Amino acid sequence: MPTNTLPVLAAQYGPLRLLTLNRADKLNAFTPEMLAALESALDEAAADDSTRIVAITGSGSKAFAAGNDIERLAALDGVAAYRDMLAGQRALLRLHEYAKPTIAMVNGYALGGGFELALACDFLVASENASFAFPEITLNTMPGWGGTQLAVARLGLACAKRFVLSGRRFSARECEPFGFIHDVVAPGDLLDAVHALATTLAAFDPFAVEMAKRALNRASELPLSAGLDLEAAHYAVNFSSEGARAGLRQFMDRRLARRTARTDTVPTSP
Ligand code: COA
Question: What is the number of helices (H) and of strands (E) in the chain?
Answer without folding.
Answer: 11, 10
